[in-house]
Structure formats: structure tokens, C-alpha cells
Design brief:
The chain is of the alpha+beta class and 459 residues long. The protein is built from 8 helices and 12 strands.
């Protein structure tokens, strides 16, 4: 029993063979018709040229020797040599017949004024006529021999067309087999693809035709799907790992609480620890939900705008006590009014994560600077926000991975690295910024430390 894939391949091959054979037959038929019409035109044109040449020859003969007897002999000689064509000729001088010869067509008079100059068909003859002064010369030839030649050509062309019609299905089948081969390979590969085997790729023949471009396009799509599936798989694994720790701590606290009777103060302390674990768990879940909304494209409400200068000012004011407590100088460069696309709450979350990240990795005595500017003061299109610190910076090979989910790369690989954190802060920033059509990147400052640059489209 053939599989559905085999039936599909066979159906495609049959359809291609049918269309190939049909197209081939139509093309050959059109070619044969064009050849027949072209050959008929050429034969008629050649006959006209021969008749006109005979007219010019007779005209010169009359001019050199107008003797009717000699002229009749010459016409009889030419008529005998063209007997198969029923060739005839007539010569008039001043409206009187000087000489004629050959098989003059019967059934209608052929006087000097019956036909105009030029080749014409008359009583089954092709007739050419030439007039000069008082001289009129007419030469004609029966068209039967021309019809016989055209009939032979027609039979030859029909025979060739019949042969083509007979072999075209075979040729169409062979062409279809050759054309369907790459498609069959693509279908076979695509049939074996699933979530666990996205490393397979469609074959590319290197010819550069439409099938190759289709295979390259599908392979690029598979690359993106594979990368996305891999990142989602890692995300789920990391999320499960992150959730396991607070859940395990919560379970341990509950077991300790239920292990024996305790004083009220001990219960209060255990409940406080349990509350901290629950808050940590809730924060992680909220972060995961926000990233899921980003993947679904629901982080931005169309048409929402925000005063970015006010968002930055309030964020700096909120983190000023944290900076003072750590002994870090938190600076804000003055700037004017800047309105960008995005919701104020989401952008406030971005600023909070950026400032929190910068303060974490800046040692006491260092500084964190915020600046805001536009690309063109006259007609701004982009607002550029920078958050710089004087921390240890980020290794060059880790600059692209700092925005990965659950990334905890130690910027300087030093013990000063802060404890805690889920590694989702910068991932959330990237998701929010991308949702409003902006971009975010991290770079190292020439004087030391790191700089986060956010570009948002002005409203």
C-alpha cells in the first residue's frame, strides 16, 4: 500500500508530465503552423520573383529584336522548358498581340488591359505583368505544382507533429521525474521534521533556480525555528531550576514549622522567612509572565506615549537613596522634554532595571550617570538614553549574551558579584524596548565600566 507521501509524489509527477506534454504539443503545433505558413510565403515569393525576371528578360529581348517569328520561337522554347508549370507568356505592342506562347489559361480573355502591373492570381495562375511605353509583357505560371509542393511539406510537418505527439508524454514524464526529484527530497526531509529534529535541512543543488531559493528560504526559517526552540527549551529548563529553589526553601520552612510546637516569636520569624521566599517566587513568576507577553507581542499598547524625561527623573530620584547607601554617586545630565512611543509604566520598569543593574556592579566610590538626548534637535526621530557606570565592565565575548534570559555572567569574574537575582532584568528591558520598536545594546566605556544605550522612537 503506497504511503500518502508516495501518492503525493506520484500525483505531482503525473500532473507535471501532463502539463509538460500538453505544453510541448502546443508549442510544436504552433511551430509547425508557423513553418508551413512561412514556407508557403517563401515559395510564392520565389515564384513571383522568377515571373518578374521572365518579364524583364522578354522586355529586353523585344527591345533588341522585335521580330515576331523569333519572339514566338523563344516563347515556345521557354514554354517547353517550363511545361510542368504550364508556363505562358504574352507580348503586346501598342495594344496588339505581338507574340504568345505556352499554355495560356482558357475561360476568360487575357487582353492587354485585363490585369494591372504586379503579381496577381488569375484563373489558377500566378501572373506577373510589366509595362514600359507601348510595350506590355505578361508571364504566368500554373499554381498546381506549388500546391503539390505545399502538400508534400504539409504531410512532412504533420508526420513530424504526430511523432512529437506520440513521444511527448514520455518526454514529459522524464522531465517531470527530473523536476520532481528535488521536490520529493524536500518533501521527504520536511516529513521527517519535528520538534526534536530541527537540525535537518533541505538539500540545495547549487543551481540557483527557484527550487534552490525555496530550499534556502526554508532552511533559513528552520534555522530561526531551531534557535527559537532551543532558547525556549533552555528557558523552560532554567525557569524550572529557578522555581525549584524558592519552592524547596518554602517546603523546608513549612516542614520546620510543623516539626514541633514553637514559641510565637519563632513562628513569626519562620513566617517572615516564608514570606520572603513567596515574594521571591512571585517576582520570578511575574518576570516570566512579562517575557511570555513579550513573546506574544502584547507588551505595547498601540498609540501609547510617555514623557521619557519625566520617567528618567523619577527613576533617578527613586534610586538616589540606594546609591547614597552604597556610596555611589548617581548623576543626571539635564535635558529638555522628550516624548516617545511606549507606556510610562513599562519604560519606568526599564529604567529601574538599568539603574539597579548599574548600581549592583559599581563599587563604592564609583559613579552612575544617566543622559538623554535626541538624534536631531530640529526634527527628532529617535531618543537616545544612556546609563553608564564605573564598574568592571563586561568581557567582549559576553556583550551579546548579557540580554539572554537567566544570564548571570559575572562582568569581571570577581567576588564582588552581587548575590541573588534571576538574570531576567536585562532580558525584560530588551523585550519592552523591542516591543515599542526600539533597540538596546551594551558596550564598554573607553575609560572603564559599561554603558547601556537605549534608542526609542520619538512620538
Amino acid at each position: 500500500m503506497p504511503s500518502s507521501f508516495q501518492r503525493l509524489t506520484r500525483s505531482l509527477r503525473f500532473q507535471l508530465a501532463f502539463w509538460n506534454a500538453g505544453v510541448l504539443v502546443v508549442l510544436v503545433a504552433c511551430l509547425l503552423v508557423v513553418l508551413y505558413l512561412g514556407m508557403r510565403f517563401l515559395l510564392q515569393r520565389e515564384l513571383e520573383e522568377v515571373l518578374l525576371e521572365d518579364c524583364r528578360e522578354l522586355e529586353q529581348l523585344v527591345a533588341s529584336n522585335p521580330d515576331p517569328v523569333e519572339l514566338r520561337k523563344e516563347l515556345a522554347r521557354k514554354a517547353t522548358s517550363h511545361q510542368s508549370q504550364n508556363w505562358f507568356a504574352q507580348v503586346w505592342i501598342s495594344g496588339k498581340l505581338l507574340a504568345d506562347g505556352g499554355g495560356v489559361p482558357l475561360g476568360a480573355p487575357l487582353g492587354p488591359e485585363d490585369l494591372m502591373d504586379g503579381p496577381q492570381e488569375f484563373l489558377g495562375f500566378r501572373v506577373a505583368q510589366k509595362t514600359a511605353a507601348n510595350l506590355r509583357v505578361r508571364v504566368g505560371s500554373n499554381l498546381d505544382f506549388l500546391a503539390d509542393d505545399l502538400a508534400r511539406i504539409q504531410r512532412l510537418l504533420l508526420g513530424g507533429g504526430f511523432v512529437v505527439a506520440v513521444i511527448s508524454p514520455l518526454v514529459g514524464w522524464l522531465l517531470a521525474a527530473r523536476a520532481i526529484g528535488p521536490v520529493a527530497g524536500m518533501l521527504e526531509t520536511a516529513r521527517g521534521l519535528d520538534a526534536t529534529s530541527l537540525d535537518k535541512r533541505l538539500p540545495v543543488r547549487g543551481i540557483g533556480d527557484e527550487l534552490d531559493r525555496l530550499a534556502v528560504t526554508i532552511n533559513q526559517m528552520l534555522d530561526r525555528l531551531g534557535a527559537y526552540t532551543s532558547s525556549q527549551r533552555d528557558f523552560v529548563a532554567n525557569a524550572a531550576h529557578e522555581l525549584r529553589s524558592p519552592l524547596a526553601a518554602t517546603r523546608a520552612l513549612l516542614e520546620v514549622t510543623l516539626n514541633k510546637d514553637r514559641p510565637v516569636e519563632e513562628y513569626r520569624e519562620l513566617m517572615q522567612d516564608l514570606l520572603e521566599q513567596v515574594e521571591s517566587l512571585a517576582g520570578l513568576v511575574n518576570s516570566l509572565l512579562l517575557l511570555a507577553e513579550g513573546d506574544a507581542g502584547r507588551l505595547h499598547r498601540p498609540g501609547a506615549t510617555a514623557r521619557l524625561d519625566q520617567v528618567v527623573e523619577r527613576a533617578v530620584e527613586m534610586f538616589a537613596p540606594v546609591a547614597d547607601q552604597k556610596g555611589v554617586k548617581l548623576g543626571l545630565h539635564p535635558f529638555g522634554q522628550v516624548t516617545v512611543n511606549g507606556e510610562p509604566g513599562r519604560l519606568r520598569q526599564v529604567l529601574s532595571n538599568l539603574l539597579d543593574n548599574a548600581l549592583k556592579f559599581t563599587p563604592p566610590g564609583g559613579s552612575v550617570e544617566c543622559s538623554l538626548r535626541v538624534d536631531d534637535p530640529a526634527q527628532p526621530a529617535w531618543a537616545i538614553l544612556e546609563v553608564s557606570d564605573t564598574g568592571p565592565g563586561v568581557p567582549e565575548e559576553s556583550l551579546e549574551r548579557v540580554f539572554d534570559r537567566f544570564n548571570r555572567t559575572d562582568p569581571a569574574h570577581q567576588p564582588m558579584r552581587p548575590k541573588g537575582g534571576s538574570g531576567l532584568g536585562l532580558s525584560i528591558c530588551r523585550a519592552i524596548v523591542r516591543a515599542v520598536g526600539g533597540s538596546i545594546r551594551m558596550e564598554n566605556r573607553p575609560t572603564g565600566g559599561a554603558r547601556l544605550v537605549v534608542k526609542l522612537r520619538c512620538a
